[in-house]
Design brief:
Structural class: alpha/beta
Distance between the termini: 12 Å
Helix content: 40-55%
CATH topology: TIM Barrel
Number of strands: 8
Low-confidence stretches: none
Shape: globular
Radius of gyration: 17 Å
CATH class: Alpha Beta
Strand content: 15-25%
Order of helices and strands: EHEHHEHEHEHEHEHEHH
CATH architecture: Alpha-Beta Barrel
Mean pLDDT: 92
Number of helices: 10
Largest sheet: 8 strands, parallel, barrel
Strand order of the largest sheet: 1-2-3-4-5-6-7-8
Length: 234
């Protein structure tokens, strides 16, 4: 069953708390990304956990393998549930990061699940510097690295989910770029509606601005949850 993750892409801890207070009872997951983590620091993780939320820490680690492996270990200590890493970092970086997860799990019985980011949803074909390969093909190649490294899943646009899931059914699929009909697409290029993403096979949907920038965030959230429920019944 697909789950909704609210992207708390807001500038302050106070703004994040105002949103989750308004939406409590409707959500199980929150995403903490670069903006909020940089502004509020690691304490925002424990505060949201204390409120009962599962946490998707979306920092998209990408560096030399040793640095990434240590960053993953540090993220494990925060008690997050999902964590991202760029597949373009290569097989060794992915493998070393997953080994950090396994070592932590062996000691503590629980650890985050690691997701490999394929291609950001803001890119369209021909827009990635130095890369002429079509996005669908590149995402497929990167998914193969994630599978080889035994990652939990992938971050990809809804456009790629069906093909990737057919080849790598053991992976879980998280889709950003979710936009209800009529919503502003902003800086996104490869998008879909919640219904389309679920029917394509997404396991997690990440939604931010269509909820957080709405004049009535709770109403916007409820409309998305209703659309998801209708899709899941098909």
């Amino acid at each position: 069953m697909a789950e909704l993750i609210l992207a708390l892409d807001v500038p302050t801890k106070q703004a994040a708390h105002a949103l989750v207070d308004d939406l409590k009872g409707k959500l199980a997951w929150c995403k903490v990304g670069l903006e909020l983590f940089t502004s509020a620091g690691p304490s925002i993780i424990s505060e949201l956990k204390d409120l009962g939320f599962k946490i998707f820490l979306d920092l998209k680690f990408y560096d030399i393998p040793n640095t990434v492996a240590k960053a993953v270990s540090a993220a494990c200590e925060l008690g997050v549930d999902l964590l991202t890493i760029h597949c373009q970092g290569g097989l060794k970086m992915l493998t070393d990061a997953q080994e950090s997860i396994e070592k932590y799990k062996a000691l503590h019985k629980a650890a985050p699940n690691l997701l490999g980011v394929t291609v950001l949803t803001s890119f369209a074909d021909g827009q990635m510097p130095g890369i002429s390969q079509p996005i669908a093909s590149l995402a497929y190649d990167l998914a193969g690295l994630a599978a080889k490294a035994n990652l939990y899943g992938l971050v990809c646009s809804p456009n790629e989910v069906a093909k990737l899931k057919a080849s790598y059914p053991m992976l879980h699929y998280l889709c950003p770029g979710i936009r209800p009909k009529g919503a502003d697409i902003g800086d996104q290029n490869r998008i879909s509606t919640p219904k389309e993403a679920i029917l394509a096979g997404a396991d997690f949907l990440v939604v931010g601005r269509p909820i957080t920038a709405n004049k009535n965030p709770r109403q916007a959230l409820e409309a998305i949850l209703t659309e998801m429920e209708e899709a899941l019944q098909k």
